Amino acid sequence: MAEKELPGVLILDIGGTHGVLEDIAPLLKKHFHVITMKEFLQNKKEMGKRIQSVFVFECRPTIDQTLLESLPNLKVIGNSGVGVDHLDLKMISNFGVKVTNTPCAVADPTADIGMALMLASARRLVEGNVLHFPGSYQLLWCIS
Fold first, then answer.
1. Which end of the chain is more exposed for a tag (fewer CB within 10 A), N or C?
2. Can you give the CATH number for the domain in which 39 is found?
3. Domain count of the fold of the chain
4. pLDDT at 1
5. Where in the numbering of this chain does the D-isomer specific 2-hydroxyacid dehydrogenase catalytic domain appear (predicted)?
C-alpha cells in the first residue's frame, strides 16, 4: 500500500538567524513535507502546487500578493507568535486562505518578565547590584 503524501508547508528556513527553530523542525516534518523558501524559489511552478500551508515564524516569510499568486493550493497560513498585524488579512482572505494564530503562546513568559521588571524597579535591584558588586556599574553603563 502506497504511503500517503504529506501536504507541503512553506517555511523560510530551518535554523540560522531567521529560520524556524531546529527543535520545531521534527514536529513539522512529522505532519508536513517541509519546503524551504530557497527550495521554493528554485522551482516555483512545481513546489507551488505542493504547498498547502505556510508557517510564519517571527514574521517570516513575508506574505504578499506575489507569493499568494504562486501558491494555487494554499489553504492556511499558520502564524507563530502574538498578533497578526504583519499580515494583510483582507488580501489573504481574498485568496480563500485562512489564517491561524497562537494568541496565548507567550502570555505566561510576558507576564513573568513584566512582574520581574516591576519587582526589580520597586526593590531597586540594579542599584543594589552596583553597591554589592563594585565595578558592575561599568557593565550597566555599556548596556544602557
1. N
2. 3.40.50.720
3. 2
4. 39
5. 21-113
> Any bridge partners for residue 99, and if so which?
77
CA distance 126 to 133: 10
* CA–CA gap between residue 57 and residue 101 (Å, rounded): 11
CB neighbours of 78 closer than 8 A, spacing ≥ 6? 53, 54, 55, 56, 100
In terms of domains, do 18 and 85 share one?
Answer: yes
DSSP 60: B
| Residue 67: domain span | 8-103
**Could you report the per-residue pLDDT of 104-126, keeping only the tens digit for each?**
767 787 788 889 889 888 888 77
Indicate the helix (H) or strand (E) that contains 118: helix 107-122
**63-106 pLDDT tens trace:** 999 999 999 999 999 998 778 999 999 999 999 999 998 777 67
- Same domain for 84 and 18: yes
pTM: 0.72
Cell numbers representing residue 126 in the block: 540594579
* Cell numbers placing 14: 530551518
